């Protein structure tokens, strides 16, 4: 594909808007059409948001997350991802029984 990685990164991070020829190249590389590239991601994300909203903790956090700026939201998500990676590296979350006994 003749689109530089740095350009793709800028698009992903919202620092650049892709041109139509770039969208065509990206869609071709991903083996989807341009419409799927633009719409398909949003549909999957809406389903993911709906699923996450069923979690009581996430539901309680949503009103606060909506008040964060973009960089604050990224910082919170980065920290949550780091915490999740640590938990996985340690063998997963502790059971409720072991935390209740502590």
Describe the structure.
- By secondary structure, this protein is mainly α.
- It has a domain at 68-102.
- The chain is built from 6 helices and no strands.
- The chain has helices at 5-12, 20-30, 34-53, 56-65, 70-89, 96-101.
Secondary structure tally, helices: 6
What is the general shape? elongated
Q: Taking all residues together, what is the mean pLDDT?
A: 75
Instruction: Return the structural class.
Output: mainly alpha
Ordered list of secondary-structure elements with their pairings:
Elements: H1 5-12, H2 20-30, H3 34-53, H4 56-65, H5 70-89, H6 96-101
In short:
Helix content is 74%, strand content 0%. The chain is mainly α and 102 residues long.
Relevant terms:
102 residues; mainly alpha
